[in-house]
Amino acid sequence: MRTIVGFTGASGVAYGVEFLRRCPGHKYLIASKWGRRVLHDELGLKAEELRPWVDDIYSDSDLGAPFSSGSNHFDTLVIVPCS
Fold this sequence. Notes:
This protein has helices at 13-22, 33-43, and strands spanning 2-7, 26-31, 56-59, 76-79. By secondary structure, the chain is of the alpha/beta class. It is globular, with a radius of gyration of 12 Å.
């Protein structure tokens, strides 16, 4: 399974990190500027520190990311936390 996981800046990013740790398959993280900020403020982590649980990490402005094109197939998109 290929899953895109989005961190948007909503409070509760610990849920997102736990999802990355438990979700099977290939995971690709998109973290917005504010998602990265909340990750640092709430957990003291940088997005790069999540590499053990994701295949790759992208910025929300990366138009070269594989999921920016509709011709690439992904199974699911999860935005967590979402408030």
